[in-house]
């Protein structure tokens, strides 16, 4: 359970006013002293993430947030961070303190959650502290409430049952590659080992793809790009699918037989974590770029840039070469994301392996609403290498828009 990547867990966020008992509720759900609990309002500042498992859902990520009624300049920043959590929330718990009642804070937050089509459970906390008019609170909020006491544990098991019932069945795509192959198929994976490769291990998309292949009762064979030809010649049976790192598309494509489907890890993750159709549409915007245009390169994680970093060096080099001049690049890394995208002619996003599907879809929606095309690394590299149509062979419906 602890080895399940954060981005592949169901994200359950807990919202409410200060001292509504959000942190106490997390401790009750996890049966651990995870969140700091205090009578002082505003104890929780930045969102706090805790991995746990709720059967039969499986691995989850519980998110504790600052109170939506925080005050002052710092309080406004905390509220902003709290609202940003909605962008990665699959299931929301709205915690009510009977002593505080229902206010515009709860009503506005409920509306924000509903508008994003996030599954929502109302939680009436602190029921051990006196008689509560639950029906009146439900009527004011327009939401049924699960009565619990974080202190005594009363109602916690029933709340877990409600979480299981309301958890979205498909908070991420079912497969990375499993629906493209059959049991017994061979998948050949091309994985460069260069300066950017982490020492002693493979990167997350490669590991997850291998696992999905094995779960599908197929065979995964992993080679470096300079061993590809020997691997193809040594196989008695042709591979069903060849998956490559996008950075070596240019080397791998000429060596791949025409009757073997070719794609990349990044293109697979464009579908797994986001909207492949929208990201492929973004490829058409590259043809309209002109020197001097503003381009945003967005990475969902922070890492030390290597000498030939894909986001800082390779992609700018490819795009400048394609447009025949210098573009004006901007970079944005980590969990944050700029909301005002109108200044850009194109958003180039990483493979999104470190964020969940809802968060990536939110980023795509922001670009779409701003009228800005968005593309991901793998789709872009296939396009500039002139092989995007070939790399979309496993996805004929998406390929058709080209």
SSE-based structural type: alpha/beta
For the biggest β-sheet, the strand order reads 2-3-1-4-5-6
Instruction: Say which CATH homologous superfamily of the largest domain is assigned.
Output: P-loop containing nucleotide triphosphate hydrolases
Number of domains: 3
Protein name: Small GTP-binding protein domain
Domain Hydrogen maturase F dimerization: 176-274
Domain Hydrogen maturase F tetramerization: 279-394
GO biological process, one term: tRNA wobble uridine modification
Describe this protein's structure.
The protein has 402 residues and is an alpha/beta fold. The chain has 3 domains: 6-166, Rossmann fold, CATH 3.40.50.300; 178-269, 3-Layer(aba) Sandwich (Rossmann fold); 275-384, Rossmann fold, CATH 3.40.50.11410. It is 35% helix and 18% strand. The strands form 3 sheets. It has a 6-stranded mixed sheet, sandwiched between helices. A 4-stranded parallel sheet has the order 8-7-9-10. A 4-stranded parallel sheet has the order 12-11-13-14. Helix 4 (134-141) links the parallel strand 5 and strand 6 (145-147). Helix 12 (310-323) packs parallel to helix 14 (377-384). It starts with 9 loop residues before the first strand and ends with a helix. It comes from Syntrophomonas wolfei subsp. wolfei (strain DSM 2245B / Goettingen). Pfam families: HydF_dimer, HydF_tetramer, MMR_HSR1.
